[in-house]
Every structure is written in structure tokens, then in C-alpha cells.
Design goal:
about 850 residues, 32 strands, 27 helices, single chain, globular, 4-stranded parallel beta sheet, RNA-binding, 7-stranded mixed beta sheet, alpha+beta
RNA sequence: GCGGGCGUGGUGGAAUGGCUUACACGCCGGCUUUAGGUGCCGGUGCUCGAAAGAGCGUGGGGGUUCGAAUCCCCCCGCCCGCACCA
């Protein structure tokens, strides 16, 4: 073959990119009329240009979109930008540009790179979340939740960076430290807006059975995070107080072992208990001490637990025992009831606290194999056993103790069965500028007032001092914007100056794709229901417990208010593996980075896409070789050249060559084509991109061998290269389009139907029979596929090497798996 | 501590309980080339052997099976998530 002629990827890719950008050939219908596929990849946050992580997931996603179209589906493949967020504000503060300008410039870079990569998005549906036409529906969503009591304001401990004097989002707290200044984060008591995700906790857990296309790994992360536990709520009387206080426990059967009672330091009950006593000052000091601790210190399990005795007592309802009430930093305000019964013999934390403060330890569960002693034990016992020191329950085994005690508590009105969740309500307030304004005003007369729907959107003002260190939130500096008449009474009122967490935007953005220009509603349920649910969602697993829980929550809420029919937005989710170099995340500062733009310039988009897909299974992490972008030039780029030369060779062949018959070589090649279509199609369905590329490489290798051996049947070779191009088109859109046209087609390859294999051609007629003697392979024989068991045995016994290992003995057992295996057993 | 995942050639990785290592990188050789590179063809788990072939080999140990990378038990190592959740 002509080795001089090489594929000019730069010119070809530039030409088709221009054409595709100009014509938007992948626009989806408003409402699908046939089989649909709605494919979504997590929309990007526009900081800088695209990185390799984007390229990886986009390559996977776009391959699925193009493959689906060729399979005859009507595909909705949209894109947008998650355009609000703190990095824009940080960049603005650092460089003195407005966050809007910074954001739009980055979106332009992103978009150019996506176009360069050959993404087949429907660009007519694009939106940015920082536009009022989008975020007004965040405000709409907020009000819908607010009307139903699912958006509410309460005082809570938020992550607070003492240096930046701002509340941080969860995702901005990295290992207990502020991502901006590395200062350890502390909790600060603030009144904030929440979405009541906990109301949906059970459904979030139970509906996981619908998530058939999620990995167990991810579902486990969510289960863990939601953390449902079953137990009982028990009423404890407090001396000198009319109302009893509830505690939550998963081990009501250890109630008789409760030797003290603990309340979280922040608990209002703490104030009540010490009020009017000589402990008031001590409480203030204790709270200060606890509040001063960074999150890192407070949550460290090594740290010694700190406590304070309140001077008051609670009454254990099961035995009327008087037990002291303590405050301790290991009890959390926002889990359960914020108060616990402490059973030091059977809870490690309680035991550590009891030893530190000299509190009694009483064993109420005895293990079967040894005798516990409350005075000397150094480790709490949480295993199986029987109840002791527990009145009439003595002797009850732990297998039934929880149920029995709970039943008894309910019968005697002392408590009730209960469950609890680790999941907390979603704190959505942010003291940031670059986000959706919360549509609430505060009026001296009417209090908290919702902005009426017909006054939406509450537009984010451009002119604010977002660097102000004094203001509670940057929006507070826009005084003209803040001070408005109350929508209810018309008297002066002040707007809420916090903005919404940007995860609100991403919690429903995919719905907007189905109806992106709707000015009456976030989306029309008719259009949404026609496209939803998302047939395949793709994106990073780092969103496992943030975006992927919020989204499921909002989807269920939409279902409850009749906006959508599906309880789950994306039953199938593919998480790509992270890309590293030298085992570390790629970053400019480390210098271990490969820029997509460099790959585009040196090897082209097709080579980059193919390189990513060939590196391994899509969900597997990929450690990029240290040589960087050059590795593309060793792996995928040369192979694309090889494909090009093969196609060009075939295109140049005379139409009816003399003497090119249809011999065994041609038949073998045709059989390989059809077998390849068969297995490649199956691999596409299973995301086995790396293995299907290997199959395509085998096909190309065989074609080269055929040519090298003098084969010249143009018909067979044309069938081969056309099948090859069709199968390659979803992964490498440019070269396949170009070569398809050069082979004489007027229409785009990307609108063509997927090749169908001929079952007769794909069927094997000869296979390799493996002959084993006592489990070891002793020969391999080529046999027809329809060989009988008797014939298999006959041929196996005819093998000299098999005979040698039979050593003259008769097989006592023959296992035949026609036509591929026969296993003979002889006594040894 | 709790939960989950992983361990296969020099490397990335293949392998419905059935020939371990497809495909590719790297390396070795041949051809083409003034040369290098590119390209085309072939070889490449380890040990013994001239070869035929034999033995060993999927982190370690045991088990089930005619047959185990795959299923079961124990151990070792690595990675990830959550972490005072009562």
C-alpha cells in the first residue's frame, strides 16, 4: 500500500466541524414520534477550558448518542452550562472582572472545544443557568416547595471559614478546611434556608430498586449517606420539668444500663437546665470551648470527649432510676433528638466518657462466652448475648430483645418505635453574589413574605460590591435592590440577600432541556414526559451524595406536584473513571497535565476520542502515561492512519479486477466482517468500547493480511471498509465522515443505519476442540461446529498426545461440551 | 471503626466455570529506505528441551469441581467513600 499518502486530520476535522456548527444537524424534535433516547451528560461548570476528564466523559457520551441515532432512535442530546458559582466570584475578586464576563468567556472556550471534539449536541436547546430565563424557575421551584412547607428557614450550624468570614458550601470544605485559604472550618450558628430532603429520605432509599443501571458502589454510597436506622424513641422525665424529653436509641434493650443522660451543648434544653443556677457561666464557657474547635478537631475520634455536668437529673422510665444530665461535645444537635441515654457498658463513646468523668458502668447484656465486669471493662460490648440486670426481661436473648422491649415501651406509653436518618435537610443559603436570588422579602409588619409568581424573576443586580467584607452577603450592598415595598402590605421591606446553592440549578436542569424556551413554566409536562426519563446519564462519581441525591429529591417533588410521571430521573447512570498521571490528579501546578487543545492540534479529535475509549473500560480509572500527549501518537493516531490507507486503497481499486475470484480467503473475510458486526454491536450495548475497538483492529489487520497475500476482491473489501466505517463512526466522527464521502456516498455517515449482520455469515463452521485429560489440555483439534459427541470422542482418542496421557487406560468418565470441549478422566 | 471495590505478562488491559494473557504499547527480528523515522510482515509469560513436548504460572493458603482468574472459606496488600449518627 502507498505509504506516502497520509490522512490530513487537521484539514478534514476543520471542514466538517464548520459544516456541523453551521447546520446543527442533530436537532431533536419537540416531541419524539418513535423510539426515543434522552441522553444527558452532567453539564459542565465553566472554569477555564475543558480538561481531560470532560473529554473522557464527552467521548463516551457522544459515542452513545451517535450509536443510538444509527440504531434508529430519535435522540435528544442537549448541553448547557452550570454557570453560577463561587469560582466565578473568586476569579472576579482576584482579577477585577465581573463574574458574568468571566463566566461567559469560559463558556465560549468550552463551546469551541466541544465543537472541536465533534460533540453531536443539539445546540438549539442550549442554556446557561445564570440567565434570568433559567433561574426564574429556580425561584419558582423554591416557592412551590415553600408553599408546601418543604422550603423553610431555621437556625443551624453552618460551615464557617473564620478567615474569609463566609459560609462555605459542603463541596468547598475539603478535609475540614476552606478550599480558598486552607483555614480549618468551624461551625457557626446561623439562620438559613433549607429544603426538606429528609421528608423524602424513605423514598430516596426505597426507590433505589428502580435504579437498575447504577453501580452497587454508587448505590451503597447513597445508602450510607442517607443512613436509615431503626430503634425507639424513649421518654425521660426531667426533675423539675413538666414535659418529658425524648431520646433516640437503636438499642432500647439496653435501657436498664443507662447510667447518665447527655444533651448536645447547643441544645436549648441546656439553657433551660442551668438557667437560674450557678452553672450559667460554666455553660457559656463550655459552649465557647466547643465552638472554638475546628471541625477537624471536633470530629476527630482520637480527641478526648469533653463534658459538663448540668446539676440536674433525669428519670429512667424503665426503673425510675435518677441519672445525672451532662452536656457533651460528642452528642450531635442535629441527629435524633439531640439528647441521648448513655449506656457505657454497651456503647464505646459512652464508655470513654464515663471513664473520663468517673461515671458508673452497668452491664445489661452478657455475652455467651465470658463474664463482663462494668468496673474493669475497657471496651464496650455491642455483640450478641442475653439481657441481665433488666428486671422481668432478664434472660431475653438479643435476637429478640429490641422488638420485645419496644413493644413493652409502647404498651406502657414510655416510648415508641422510631427510625432516623443520617441525611440532613439541604442547606441552600449561600452568602454569595453569583447565584439565584431567593424570592423572599422581610417586612416589619408581615414578616417573611414570598414574592408572588407573577413578579418573578427576582433579577440578580449587576452593580454590587461583591468584595465587601462587612456586609452579611454581597447582595446587601445593593441597597436599591434590597429595599422594596412589601408585596403584601406595600410598606418598606428588605429582600433576602442570600442566594441559592448552585446545586439547586443542577437539581432539575435536565428537565429544562425538554422545553428550554418555555416562558410560562419550567417545562411543559407533555414535552417532559415524552422524553423522560433520561435513558443514560453520564458523569463523575464525585457527585454521588450531592447532585445525585438533590436531583432525585427534586424529581420526586415534581412528581408529587404532577409535573412529571417518573419517580427517578435517570435509572441508568455511568460514572467514568478518574484520569490521573503518576497516580495524581492532573493539575497545572503539579505539571502533570495533558491539555485537550494540544491533543487536538497534534493528533486531532478522533485520535483523542479513540485513545480515551481504548484505554480501558469507561468506569475504570485511567493513569495517563508520563510521556503525555505523545502516547496518542503511538496508540490511536497511527491506527486511524492505517484505517485511512486501507479505505483509500479500496477506493482506488479497479471496480472489476480481472482474476479476483471468490475463493476461501474472500469467504473467510466476509465471515469475519459479519462476526465482527455481531460482537461489536453487543459491545456497544454494554459500553465495551475498548474491546470493540480491538475487534475493529482485528478486522483491519485481516484486511491488510489479505491484501499482502495478493487478495484483490474489491466487492468484499468494500463491504469490509464500509462496515468498518459505520462501526467506527460513533467514536471517530470526522475520519469516518470524510472517508464515507470519498467512497462515493452523498449523505452523511452519521445518518446511516447501523449495519446488520447476516446470521448465516456470522456463524462459525469450524471451531477449535479442546481435549483435556484429567483436567489438563492435551490437544486442540479443528472440528466442524455440528460435530457429534461420538465423533468428538473418536477424534480425541485418535490424538497421539491424548493416547500418551491416557497411558493405555480406558476413560472412566467423559465430559463432552460440543463442539468446543471434551474432557477425559482416567484413574491415576 | 463502618461500608464498598480491586489484585492477571515489562505496561494498559482481554477472558458466558472450559486453550490464561484477545487487542494495543514496549521490546526483538525480517522487508522497504542512502540513513533515521514512517510503513509492511513476523516473534515475544517463566523454567527445562535441538524439537516434539513437559512442568510451573492470574497476591498467599485451603476447599468445591472432570476442569477455577472466575464459586466458597481464611489471610496479605492496595484504593475509595463515610466517619463521635446514639
Amino acid at each position: 500500500m502507498d505509504r506516502e499518502r497520509s490522512y490530513d486530520f487537521a484539514a478534514v476535522e476543520e471542514r466538517w466541524k464548520k459544516e456541523w456548527v453551521a447546520t446543527n444537524p442533530w436537532a431533536a424534535p419537540e416531541i419524539p414520534t418513535g423510539n426515543k433516547r434522552f441522553l444527558v451528560t452532567m453539564f459542565p461548570y465553566p472554569s477555564g477550558d475543558l480538561h481531560m476528564g470532560h473529554v473522557e466523559i464527552f467521548s463516551i457520551h457522544d459515542t452513545l448518542a451517535r450509536y443510538s441515532r444509527m440504531q434508529g432512535f430519535q435522540v435528544l442530546n442537549p448541553i448547557g452550562w452550570d454557570a453560577f458559582g463561587l469560582p466565578a466570584e473568586n476569579a472576579a475578586i482576584k482579577r477585577g472582572v465581573h463574574p458574568k464576563k468571566w463566566t461567559y468567556e469560559n463558556i465560549a472556550k468550552h463551546r469551541a472545544s466541544m465543537e472541536r471534539l465533534g460533540m453531536s449536541f443539539d445546540w438549539s436547546r442550549v442554556f446557561y443557568t445564570c440567565e434570568p430565563t433559567f433561574y426564574r424557575w429556580n425561584q419558582w421551584l423554591f416557592l412551590q416547595l415553600y408553599e408546601r412547607g418543604l422550603a423553610y428557614r431555621k437556625a443551624a450550624a453552618a460551615n464557617w471559614c473564620p478567615k474569609d468570614k463566609t459560609v462555605l458550601a459542603n463541596e468547598q470544605v475539603i478535609a475540614g478546611r476552606c478550599e480558598r485559604c486552607d483555614t480549618p472550618v468551624v461551625k457557626k450558628w446561623l439562620t438559613q434556608w433549607f429544603f426538606k430532603t429528609t421528608d423524602y429520605a424513605d423514598r430516596l432509599l426505597d426507590d433505589m430498586e428502580l435504579l437498575t443501571g447504577w453501580t452497587e458502589r454508587l448505590k451503597n454510597l447513597q445508602r450510607n449517606w442517607i443512613g436509615r436506622s431503626y430503634g425507639a424513641e424513649v421518654n425521660f422525665k426531667i426533675e423539675g420539668r413538666l414535659e418529658p424529653v425524648q431520646v433516640y436509641t437503636t438499642r432500647p434493650d439496653t435501657l436498664w444500663g443507662a447510667t447518665f443522660f447527655v444533651v448536645a451543648p447547643e441544645h436549648p434544653l441546656a439553657d433551660e437546665l442551668v438557667s437560674g443556677t450557678d452553672k450559667e457561666d460554666e455553660l457559656v464557657r463550655f459552649r465557647e470551648e466547643v465552638g472554638r474547635l475546628s471541625e477537624i478537631d471536633r470530629t476527630s475520634t482520637e480527641r478526648e470527649k469533653k463534658g459538663m455536668f448540668t446539676g440536674k437529673y433525669a428519670i429512667n422510665p424503665v426503673n425510675d432510676e435518677r441519672i445525672p444530665i451532662w452536656l457533651a461535645d460528642y452528642v450531635l444537635m442535629d441527629y435524633g433528638t439531640g439528647a441521648i441515654m448513655a449506656v457505657p457498658a454497651h456503647d464505646q463513646r459512652d464508655l470513654e466518657f464515663a471513664r473520663a468523668y468517673g461515671l458508673p458502668v452497668r452491664v445489661v447484656i452478657q455475652p455467651p462466652d465470658r463474664e463482663l465486669d462494668g468496673d474493669t471493662m475497657t471496651e464496650a460490648y455491642a455483640g450478641e448475648g442475653v439481657m441481665v440486670n433488666s428486671g422481668t426481661f432478664d434472660g431475653t436473648p438479643t435476637t429478640e430483645s429490641v422488638a420485645k422491649v419496644t413493644e413493652w415501651l409502647e404498651a406502657n406509653n414510655l416510648g415508641r418505635s422510631a427510625k432516623n436518618f443520617r441525611l440532613r435537610d439541604w442547606l441552600i443559603s449561600r452568602q454569595r453574589y453569583w447565584g439565584t436570588p431567593i424570592p423572599i422579602v422581610f417586612c416589619d409588619d408581615c414578616g417573611e413574605v414570598a414574592i408572588p409568581y407573577d413578579q418573578l424573576p427576582v433579577v440578580l443586580p449587576d452593580d454590587v460590591d461583591f468584595e465587601s467584607q462587612e456586609a452579611a452577603s454581597p447582595l446587601a450592598t445593593a441597597t436599591d435592590w434590597v429595599n422594596v415595598p412589601c408585596p403584601k402590605c406595600g410598606r418598606p421591606s428588605r429582600r433576602e440577600t442570600d442566594t441559592m446553592d448552585t446545586f439547586v440549578d443542577s437539581s432539575w436542569y435536565y428537565q429544562r432541556y425538554t422545553d428550554p424556551r418555555n416562558e410560562e413554566a419550567p417545562f411543559d409536562p407533555k414535552k417532559s414526559n415524552a422524553w423522560m426519563p433520561i435513558d443514560q446519564y453520564t458523569g463523575g462519581i464525585e457527585h454521588a451524595v450531592l447532585h445525585l441525591i438533590y436531583t432525585r429529591f427534586v424529581q420526586k417533588f415534581f412528581m408529587d406536584i404532577g409535573m412529571t410521571k417518573d419517580p427517578e430521573p435517570f435509572p441508568a447512570l455511568l460514572n467514568q473513571g478518574i484520569i490521573t498521571m503518576g497516580g495524581k490528579r492532573m493539575s497545572k501546578s503539579r505539571g502533570n497535565i495533558v491539555e485537550p487543545v494540544e491533543a487536538f492540534e497534534r493528533y486531532g479529535a478522533d485520535a483523542l476520542r479513540l485513545y480515551m475509549l481504548f484505554s480501558g473500560p469507561p468506569e475504570a480509572p485511567f493513569d495517563w502515561p508520563e510521556e503525555g500527549v505523545t502516547s496518542i501518537g503511538r496508540v490511536s493516531a497511527p491506527w486511524l492512519q492505517r484505517v485511512w490507507r486501507l479505505c483509500e486503497d479500496v477506493a482506488d481499486m479497479p471496480v472489476a479486477p480481472e482474476g479476483a475470484g471468490r475463493g476461501d480467503a474472500e469467504i473467510a473475510l466476509r465471515k469475519l466482517i459479519h462476526r465482527t458486526i455481531k460482537v461489536v454491536t453487543r459491545d456497544y450495548e454494554d459500553f465495551g468500547f475498548n474491546t470493540l475497538i480491538a475487534r475493529l483492529q482485528e478486522l483491519v489487520n485481516e484486511a491488510y493480511r489479505y491484501r499482502a497475500a495478493g487478495g484483490a476482491n474489491r466487492g468484499v473489501l468494500l463491504e469490509l471498509v464500509e462496515s468498518l466505517l459505520l462501526m467506527l463512526a460513533p467514536m471517530a466522527p470526522y475520519i469516518t465522515e470524510e472517508e464515507w464521502r470519498r467512497l462515493g456516498h452523498d449523505e452523511s455517515i452519521h445518518g446511516r443505519e447501523w449495519p446488520v449482520f447476516d446470521p448465516v455469515m456470522a456463524a462459525e463452521d469450524e471451531v477449535t476442540l479442546v481435549v483435556q485429560v484429567n483436567g489438563k489440555v492435551r490437544d486442540t483439534i479443528e472440528v466442524p461446529v455440528d460435530i457429534s459427541e461420538e465423533e468428538m470422542l473418536r477424534r480425541a482418542l485418535a490424538s497421539p498426545n491424548v493416547q500418551a496421557h491416557l497411558a493405555g487406560k480406558e476413560p472412566t468418565k467423559v465430559i463432552a461440551r460440543p463442539p468446543k470441549l471434551i474432557s477425559l478422566v482416567v484413574p491415576t
